[in-house]
Amino acid sequence: MYKQVKAEIIIMYQDLLDKKKTLAVIGLGYVGLPIALEFAKKIKVIGFDINAGRIEMMRNNIDPSQELESKDFEGCDIEFTNDLDVLRKANFFIVAVPTPVDEHNVPDLVPVQRASETIGKVIKKGDYVVYESTVYPGCTEEDCVPIIEKNSGLKMTQDYKIGYSPERINPGDKQHTISTIVKVVSGCCKESLDTIAKVYELVVKAGVHKASSIKVAEAAKIIENTQRDLNIALMNELSIIFDKMDINTYEVLEAAGTKWNFLKFQPGLVGGHCIGVDPYYLTYKSKKLGYNSQVILAGRFINDAMAGYVARKILQNIILYNSDIKKAKVLVMGATFKENVSDIRNSKVADVIKELKAYSLNVDVTDPHAESEELKHEYGFELTETLANNYDAVLITVPHDDYKKLDDAYFASITKEHALVADIKGIYRGKIQSRKYWSL
User: For this structure, is 144 an active site residue?
Assistant: First the structure.
Protein backbone atom coordinates (compact mmCIF):
# COMPACT_ATOMS: atom_id res chain seq x y z
CA MET A 1 0.00 0.00 0.00
CA TYR A 2 2.84 2.41 0.89
CA LYS A 3 4.53 1.79 -2.46
CA GLN A 4 1.24 2.55 -4.25
CA VAL A 5 0.82 5.84 -2.35
CA LYS A 6 4.42 6.82 -3.03
CA ALA A 7 3.94 6.07 -6.72
CA GLU A 8 0.83 8.26 -6.86
CA ILE A 9 2.73 11.13 -5.25
CA ILE A 10 5.53 10.86 -7.78
CA ILE A 11 3.08 10.62 -10.70
CA MET A 12 1.28 13.91 -9.82
CA TYR A 13 4.58 15.68 -9.21
CA GLN A 14 6.21 14.33 -12.37
CA ASP A 15 3.16 15.06 -14.53
CA LEU A 16 3.24 18.68 -13.37
CA LEU A 17 6.97 18.83 -14.00
CA ASP A 18 6.56 17.29 -17.48
CA LYS A 19 3.66 19.71 -18.14
CA LYS A 20 1.23 16.85 -18.70
CA LYS A 21 -0.83 18.39 -15.91
CA THR A 22 -1.45 22.03 -15.03
CA LEU A 23 -1.50 24.01 -11.81
CA ALA A 24 -4.04 26.83 -11.40
CA VAL A 25 -4.01 29.76 -8.99
CA ILE A 26 -7.42 31.27 -8.24
CA GLY A 27 -7.22 34.90 -7.13
CA LEU A 28 -4.32 36.95 -8.51
CA GLY A 29 -3.82 39.68 -5.95
CA TYR A 30 -0.90 40.35 -3.60
CA VAL A 31 -0.73 36.66 -2.69
CA GLY A 32 -1.87 34.79 -5.79
CA LEU A 33 0.12 36.47 -8.56
CA PRO A 34 3.60 36.00 -7.00
CA ILE A 35 2.78 32.34 -6.33
CA ALA A 36 1.49 31.80 -9.87
CA LEU A 37 4.56 33.38 -11.48
CA GLU A 38 6.97 31.46 -9.26
CA PHE A 39 5.38 28.14 -10.23
CA ALA A 40 5.20 29.22 -13.88
CA LYS A 41 8.99 29.30 -13.99
CA LYS A 42 8.94 25.53 -13.41
CA ILE A 43 5.59 24.15 -14.61
CA LYS A 44 2.51 25.02 -16.65
CA VAL A 45 0.19 27.43 -14.83
CA ILE A 46 -3.27 28.95 -15.27
CA GLY A 47 -3.79 32.26 -13.49
CA PHE A 48 -7.51 32.74 -12.83
CA ASP A 49 -9.23 35.90 -11.62
CA ILE A 50 -12.82 37.11 -12.00
CA ASN A 51 -11.68 40.68 -12.72
CA ALA A 52 -11.34 40.97 -16.50
CA GLY A 53 -9.52 44.30 -16.24
CA ARG A 54 -6.83 42.83 -14.01
CA ILE A 55 -6.47 39.83 -16.32
CA GLU A 56 -5.81 42.13 -19.29
CA MET A 57 -3.16 44.02 -17.33
CA MET A 58 -1.38 40.80 -16.37
CA ARG A 59 -1.46 39.59 -19.97
CA ASN A 60 0.57 42.73 -20.69
CA ASN A 61 3.06 41.95 -17.91
CA ILE A 62 1.60 44.54 -15.53
CA ASP A 63 0.96 43.75 -11.88
CA PRO A 64 -2.24 45.59 -10.83
CA SER A 65 -0.97 45.58 -7.24
CA GLN A 66 2.30 47.26 -8.30
CA GLU A 67 4.38 44.77 -6.33
CA LEU A 68 6.03 42.99 -9.26
CA GLU A 69 7.94 44.38 -12.23
CA SER A 70 7.47 43.54 -15.90
CA LYS A 71 10.60 41.37 -15.89
CA ASP A 72 9.03 39.12 -13.25
CA PHE A 73 6.58 37.88 -15.91
CA GLU A 74 9.33 36.91 -18.33
CA GLY A 75 10.06 33.23 -18.94
CA CYS A 76 6.83 32.13 -17.26
CA ASP A 77 4.57 29.45 -18.74
CA ILE A 78 1.29 30.98 -17.62
CA GLU A 79 -2.12 31.66 -19.14
CA PHE A 80 -4.17 34.43 -17.52
CA THR A 81 -7.93 33.96 -17.78
CA ASN A 82 -11.36 34.52 -16.27
CA ASP A 83 -12.85 31.70 -18.38
CA LEU A 84 -14.08 28.56 -16.57
CA ASP A 85 -13.47 26.43 -19.65
CA VAL A 86 -9.78 27.28 -19.47
CA LEU A 87 -9.71 26.60 -15.71
CA ARG A 88 -11.10 23.11 -16.34
CA LYS A 89 -7.74 22.13 -17.83
CA ALA A 90 -6.09 22.39 -14.41
CA ASN A 91 -5.43 19.47 -12.07
CA PHE A 92 -3.88 21.18 -9.04
CA PHE A 93 -5.77 24.23 -7.73
CA ILE A 94 -4.42 26.83 -5.32
CA VAL A 95 -6.94 29.26 -3.81
CA ALA A 96 -5.50 32.67 -2.89
CA VAL A 97 -8.55 34.93 -2.63
CA PRO A 98 -8.86 37.54 0.14
CA THR A 99 -10.63 36.82 3.43
CA PRO A 100 -11.59 40.17 5.01
CA VAL A 101 -13.90 41.07 7.87
CA ASP A 102 -17.06 43.18 7.54
CA GLU A 103 -17.88 46.45 9.29
CA HIS A 104 -18.72 44.49 12.45
CA ASN A 105 -15.40 42.61 12.36
CA VAL A 106 -17.16 39.38 11.41
CA PRO A 107 -15.28 37.13 8.94
CA ASP A 108 -16.43 37.62 5.35
CA LEU A 109 -16.12 34.21 3.69
CA VAL A 110 -17.88 35.21 0.47
CA PRO A 111 -14.69 35.29 -1.68
CA VAL A 112 -13.48 31.89 -0.48
CA GLN A 113 -16.98 30.43 -0.79
CA ARG A 114 -17.29 31.66 -4.38
CA ALA A 115 -13.86 30.26 -5.17
CA SER A 116 -15.01 26.92 -3.76
CA GLU A 117 -18.10 27.04 -5.99
CA THR A 118 -15.87 27.73 -8.99
CA ILE A 119 -13.66 24.76 -8.15
CA GLY A 120 -16.72 22.57 -7.70
CA LYS A 121 -17.72 23.32 -11.28
CA VAL A 122 -14.36 22.36 -12.81
CA ILE A 123 -12.76 19.77 -10.52
CA LYS A 124 -12.19 16.19 -11.71
CA LYS A 125 -11.33 12.87 -10.07
CA GLY A 126 -7.70 12.81 -9.01
CA ASP A 127 -7.38 16.60 -8.72
CA TYR A 128 -5.92 18.54 -5.79
CA VAL A 129 -7.14 21.72 -4.08
CA VAL A 130 -4.95 23.74 -1.71
CA TYR A 131 -6.26 26.80 0.14
CA GLU A 132 -3.84 29.60 1.02
CA SER A 133 -6.45 32.17 2.12
CA THR A 134 -6.36 32.98 5.83
CA VAL A 135 -9.29 31.34 7.63
CA TYR A 136 -10.19 30.09 11.12
CA PRO A 137 -9.31 26.50 12.07
CA GLY A 138 -11.84 24.13 10.52
CA CYS A 139 -12.98 26.42 7.72
CA THR A 140 -11.37 24.45 4.88
CA GLU A 141 -12.99 21.15 5.82
CA GLU A 142 -16.22 22.44 7.38
CA ASP A 143 -17.11 25.33 5.06
CA CYS A 144 -15.22 24.93 1.78
CA VAL A 145 -15.29 21.16 1.18
CA PRO A 146 -19.13 20.89 1.36
CA ILE A 147 -19.41 23.61 -1.32
CA ILE A 148 -16.97 21.80 -3.62
CA GLU A 149 -18.79 18.50 -3.13
CA LYS A 150 -22.23 20.03 -3.65
CA ASN A 151 -21.15 21.46 -7.00
CA SER A 152 -19.03 18.53 -8.17
CA GLY A 153 -20.64 15.39 -6.76
CA LEU A 154 -17.14 14.24 -5.74
CA LYS A 155 -15.97 13.11 -2.31
CA MET A 156 -12.87 14.37 -0.52
CA THR A 157 -9.99 11.88 -0.18
CA GLN A 158 -11.88 9.28 -2.21
CA ASP A 159 -12.17 11.34 -5.42
CA TYR A 160 -9.99 14.38 -4.87
CA LYS A 161 -7.53 15.69 -2.28
CA ILE A 162 -7.66 18.82 -0.14
CA GLY A 163 -4.86 20.70 1.60
CA TYR A 164 -4.08 23.97 3.31
CA SER A 165 -0.85 25.97 3.06
CA PRO A 166 -1.05 29.44 4.64
CA GLU A 167 0.31 32.34 2.62
CA ARG A 168 3.24 34.25 4.03
CA ILE A 169 3.44 37.12 1.56
CA ASN A 170 4.73 40.39 3.01
CA PRO A 171 3.91 43.28 0.62
CA GLY A 172 6.91 45.48 -0.13
CA ASP A 173 9.41 42.98 1.29
CA LYS A 174 11.99 42.00 -1.33
CA GLN A 175 14.03 39.89 1.09
CA HIS A 176 11.41 37.53 2.52
CA THR A 177 9.80 36.09 -0.61
CA ILE A 178 8.00 32.85 -1.50
CA SER A 179 11.20 30.95 -2.12
CA THR A 180 12.99 32.12 1.04
CA ILE A 181 10.24 31.53 3.64
CA VAL A 182 9.54 28.05 5.03
CA LYS A 183 6.13 26.90 3.75
CA VAL A 184 3.69 25.21 6.11
CA VAL A 185 1.74 22.49 4.29
CA SER A 186 -1.04 20.11 5.28
CA GLY A 187 -3.36 17.61 3.66
CA CYS A 188 -6.46 15.50 4.23
CA CYS A 189 -4.38 12.28 4.23
CA LYS A 190 -0.75 11.16 4.09
CA GLU A 191 -0.78 10.97 0.29
CA SER A 192 -2.12 14.50 -0.08
CA LEU A 193 0.31 15.88 2.53
CA ASP A 194 3.34 14.36 0.82
CA THR A 195 2.17 15.35 -2.66
CA ILE A 196 1.43 18.96 -1.68
CA ALA A 197 4.79 19.19 0.09
CA LYS A 198 6.63 17.90 -2.96
CA VAL A 199 4.84 20.32 -5.30
CA TYR A 200 5.64 23.35 -3.11
CA GLU A 201 9.25 22.22 -2.80
CA LEU A 202 9.50 23.06 -6.50
CA VAL A 203 9.51 26.76 -5.66
CA VAL A 204 10.25 27.04 -1.93
CA LYS A 205 14.02 26.82 -1.48
CA ALA A 206 13.70 27.29 2.30
CA GLY A 207 11.80 24.00 2.51
CA VAL A 208 8.41 22.98 3.88
CA HIS A 209 7.01 22.14 7.30
CA LYS A 210 4.45 19.33 7.31
CA ALA A 211 1.65 20.11 9.74
CA SER A 212 -0.15 17.14 11.27
CA SER A 213 -3.56 18.32 10.08
CA ILE A 214 -5.32 21.01 8.07
CA LYS A 215 -6.66 22.57 11.27
CA VAL A 216 -3.15 22.86 12.71
CA ALA A 217 -1.95 24.66 9.58
CA GLU A 218 -4.96 27.02 9.67
CA ALA A 219 -4.35 27.76 13.35
CA ALA A 220 -0.63 28.38 12.75
CA LYS A 221 -1.43 31.11 10.25
CA ILE A 222 -3.92 32.78 12.58
CA ILE A 223 -1.58 32.95 15.57
CA GLU A 224 1.36 34.30 13.52
CA ASN A 225 -0.48 37.58 13.12
CA THR A 226 -2.38 37.43 16.42
CA GLN A 227 0.94 37.31 18.25
CA ARG A 228 2.20 40.38 16.38
CA ASP A 229 -1.09 42.19 17.00
CA LEU A 230 -0.88 41.63 20.75
CA ASN A 231 2.74 42.72 20.96
CA ILE A 232 2.00 45.92 19.04
CA ALA A 233 -1.02 46.52 21.28
CA LEU A 234 1.28 46.36 24.30
CA MET A 235 3.61 48.91 22.67
CA ASN A 236 0.65 51.18 21.90
CA GLU A 237 -0.60 51.02 25.47
CA LEU A 238 2.89 51.74 26.75
CA SER A 239 3.15 54.75 24.43
CA ILE A 240 -0.06 56.18 25.89
CA ILE A 241 1.26 55.69 29.43
CA PHE A 242 4.70 57.10 28.65
CA ASP A 243 3.17 60.12 26.92
CA LYS A 244 1.46 61.01 30.20
CA MET A 245 4.84 60.70 31.90
CA ASP A 246 6.52 62.88 29.25
CA ILE A 247 8.83 59.99 28.27
CA ASN A 248 9.67 59.20 24.64
CA THR A 249 8.56 55.63 23.92
CA TYR A 250 11.24 54.99 21.31
CA GLU A 251 13.98 55.97 23.74
CA VAL A 252 12.55 53.52 26.26
CA LEU A 253 12.43 50.76 23.64
CA GLU A 254 16.03 51.44 22.62
CA ALA A 255 17.15 51.10 26.22
CA ALA A 256 15.10 47.96 26.87
CA GLY A 257 16.23 46.51 23.53
CA THR A 258 19.79 46.17 24.81
CA LYS A 259 18.68 43.02 26.65
CA TRP A 260 19.18 39.91 24.50
CA ASN A 261 15.63 38.55 24.87
CA PHE A 262 13.62 41.77 24.57
CA LEU A 263 11.21 41.63 21.61
CA LYS A 264 11.69 44.72 19.46
CA PHE A 265 8.12 45.68 18.55
CA GLN A 266 7.06 49.31 18.07
CA PRO A 267 3.82 51.25 18.53
CA GLY A 268 1.79 52.31 15.51
CA LEU A 269 -1.40 52.11 13.49
CA VAL A 270 -2.25 48.47 12.84
CA GLY A 271 -3.86 48.07 9.42
CA GLY A 272 -3.42 45.94 6.35
CA HIS A 273 -5.02 42.68 5.31
CA CYS A 274 -3.43 40.47 8.00
CA ILE A 275 -2.54 41.73 11.47
CA GLY A 276 -5.64 43.88 11.91
CA VAL A 277 -7.95 41.20 10.46
CA ASP A 278 -6.75 37.67 11.25
CA PRO A 279 -7.30 37.79 15.05
CA TYR A 280 -11.02 38.36 14.45
CA TYR A 281 -11.22 35.03 12.59
CA LEU A 282 -9.88 33.25 15.68
CA THR A 283 -12.09 35.10 18.17
CA TYR A 284 -15.14 34.53 15.92
CA LYS A 285 -14.59 30.77 15.90
CA SER A 286 -13.78 30.79 19.60
CA LYS A 287 -17.10 32.48 20.39
CA LYS A 288 -18.94 29.91 18.26
CA LEU A 289 -17.40 27.24 20.48
CA GLY A 290 -18.56 28.98 23.65
CA TYR A 291 -15.38 30.82 24.70
CA ASN A 292 -15.18 34.61 24.59
CA SER A 293 -11.62 35.80 24.01
CA GLN A 294 -10.26 38.26 26.53
CA VAL A 295 -6.60 38.93 25.78
CA ILE A 296 -6.89 38.88 21.97
CA LEU A 297 -9.89 41.21 21.85
CA ALA A 298 -8.29 43.53 24.40
CA GLY A 299 -5.35 43.91 22.05
CA ARG A 300 -7.67 44.52 19.11
CA PHE A 301 -9.52 47.20 21.09
CA ILE A 302 -6.29 49.07 21.86
CA ASN A 303 -5.01 48.92 18.28
CA ASP A 304 -8.33 49.90 16.71
CA ALA A 305 -8.56 52.87 19.11
CA MET A 306 -5.17 54.33 18.14
CA ALA A 307 -6.55 56.32 15.21
CA GLY A 308 -8.82 58.26 17.57
CA TYR A 309 -6.00 58.74 20.07
CA VAL A 310 -3.66 60.23 17.43
CA ALA A 311 -6.40 62.54 16.11
CA ARG A 312 -7.10 63.84 19.62
CA LYS A 313 -3.43 64.59 20.26
CA ILE A 314 -3.35 66.72 17.11
CA LEU A 315 -6.61 68.46 18.00
CA GLN A 316 -5.34 69.33 21.49
CA ASN A 317 -2.35 71.19 20.05
CA ILE A 318 -4.46 72.99 17.44
CA ILE A 319 -6.95 74.23 20.06
CA LEU A 320 -4.11 75.93 21.97
CA TYR A 321 -3.40 78.29 19.05
CA ASN A 322 -6.65 78.54 17.08
CA SER A 323 -9.80 80.30 18.18
CA ASP A 324 -11.65 78.80 15.22
CA ILE A 325 -10.55 75.20 14.56
CA LYS A 326 -12.68 75.13 11.39
CA LYS A 327 -9.95 77.24 9.79
CA ALA A 328 -7.13 74.97 10.95
CA LYS A 329 -5.32 72.82 8.40
CA VAL A 330 -3.69 69.44 8.84
CA LEU A 331 -1.42 67.63 6.39
CA VAL A 332 -1.41 63.83 6.58
CA MET A 333 1.66 62.26 4.98
CA GLY A 334 1.09 58.61 4.10
CA ALA A 335 -2.14 56.81 3.24
CA THR A 336 -1.02 53.22 2.63
CA PHE A 337 -1.13 50.65 5.43
CA LYS A 338 2.68 50.34 5.59
CA GLU A 339 5.83 51.86 4.17
CA ASN A 340 6.93 51.68 0.53
CA VAL A 341 3.85 49.87 -0.80
CA SER A 342 0.75 50.96 -2.71
CA ASP A 343 -1.56 48.71 -0.67
CA ILE A 344 -4.33 50.71 1.03
CA ARG A 345 -6.40 47.75 2.24
CA ASN A 346 -7.64 48.31 5.79
CA SER A 347 -5.39 51.35 6.13
CA LYS A 348 -5.91 52.84 9.58
CA VAL A 349 -4.70 56.17 8.21
CA ALA A 350 -8.19 56.47 6.74
CA ASP A 351 -9.59 56.20 10.27
CA VAL A 352 -7.32 59.00 11.48
CA ILE A 353 -8.43 61.23 8.60
CA LYS A 354 -12.07 60.45 9.38
CA GLU A 355 -11.52 61.41 13.02
CA LEU A 356 -9.76 64.66 12.09
CA LYS A 357 -12.54 65.66 9.72
CA ALA A 358 -15.10 64.88 12.41
CA TYR A 359 -13.54 67.75 14.39
CA SER A 360 -14.18 70.04 11.37
CA LEU A 361 -10.46 70.27 10.58
CA ASN A 362 -9.33 70.80 6.98
CA VAL A 363 -7.25 67.80 5.95
CA ASP A 364 -4.85 67.43 3.01
CA VAL A 365 -3.35 64.03 2.22
CA THR A 366 -0.20 63.08 0.33
CA ASP A 367 1.44 59.75 -0.47
CA PRO A 368 4.06 58.89 -3.14
CA HIS A 369 2.80 55.31 -3.52
CA ALA A 370 -1.00 55.43 -3.19
CA GLU A 371 -3.42 56.01 -6.07
CA SER A 372 -5.77 58.98 -5.58
CA GLU A 373 -8.67 57.35 -7.44
CA GLU A 374 -8.37 54.18 -5.39
CA LEU A 375 -8.41 56.19 -2.15
CA LYS A 376 -11.47 58.11 -3.35
CA HIS A 377 -13.29 54.89 -4.18
CA GLU A 378 -12.34 53.11 -0.98
CA TYR A 379 -12.36 55.88 1.63
CA GLY A 380 -13.90 58.98 0.07
CA PHE A 381 -10.85 61.27 0.03
CA GLU A 382 -8.25 62.15 -2.60
CA LEU A 383 -4.58 63.03 -2.58
CA THR A 384 -3.64 66.72 -2.54
CA GLU A 385 -1.61 67.80 -5.58
CA THR A 386 -0.31 71.14 -4.27
CA LEU A 387 0.69 71.54 -0.62
CA ALA A 388 0.09 74.70 1.38
CA ASN A 389 2.64 76.59 3.52
CA ASN A 390 0.46 77.25 6.55
CA TYR A 391 -0.46 73.90 8.13
CA ASP A 392 -1.26 73.86 11.84
CA ALA A 393 -0.12 70.24 12.08
CA VAL A 394 1.65 67.66 9.97
CA LEU A 395 1.02 63.98 10.68
CA ILE A 396 3.54 61.50 9.26
CA THR A 397 1.80 58.14 9.45
CA VAL A 398 3.96 55.88 7.28
CA PRO A 399 7.79 55.89 7.11
CA HIS A 400 8.10 55.83 3.31
CA ASP A 401 11.71 56.14 2.12
CA ASP A 402 10.69 59.36 0.35
CA TYR A 403 9.82 60.92 3.72
CA LYS A 404 13.04 59.90 5.47
CA LYS A 405 14.95 62.40 3.31
CA LEU A 406 12.99 65.38 4.67
CA ASP A 407 14.41 67.67 7.35
CA ASP A 408 13.47 70.36 9.84
CA ALA A 409 13.69 73.10 7.20
CA TYR A 410 11.12 71.31 5.04
CA PHE A 411 8.53 71.11 7.80
CA ALA A 412 9.20 74.73 8.77
CA SER A 413 8.49 75.73 5.15
CA ILE A 414 5.00 74.18 5.08
CA THR A 415 3.77 74.99 8.61
CA LYS A 416 2.95 77.85 10.94
CA GLU A 417 5.34 78.60 13.81
CA HIS A 418 3.07 76.98 16.40
CA ALA A 419 2.52 73.85 14.31
CA LEU A 420 2.86 70.30 15.59
CA VAL A 421 4.89 67.67 13.74
CA ALA A 422 3.27 64.37 14.74
CA ASP A 423 5.55 61.50 13.80
CA ILE A 424 3.83 58.13 14.35
CA LYS A 425 6.91 55.94 13.80
CA GLY A 426 9.50 58.30 15.27
CA ILE A 427 11.59 58.70 12.10
CA TYR A 428 12.37 62.39 12.81
CA ARG A 429 13.19 61.97 16.49
CA GLY A 430 15.91 64.49 17.42
CA LYS A 431 15.70 66.18 14.00
CA ILE A 432 12.79 68.62 14.45
CA GLN A 433 13.93 71.76 16.25
CA SER A 434 11.85 74.66 14.86
CA ARG A 435 8.43 73.10 15.50
CA LYS A 436 6.78 71.23 18.33
CA TYR A 437 7.42 67.50 17.95
CA TRP A 438 5.40 64.47 19.12
CA SER A 439 5.52 60.77 18.42
CA LEU A 440 3.94 57.62 19.79
Answer: no
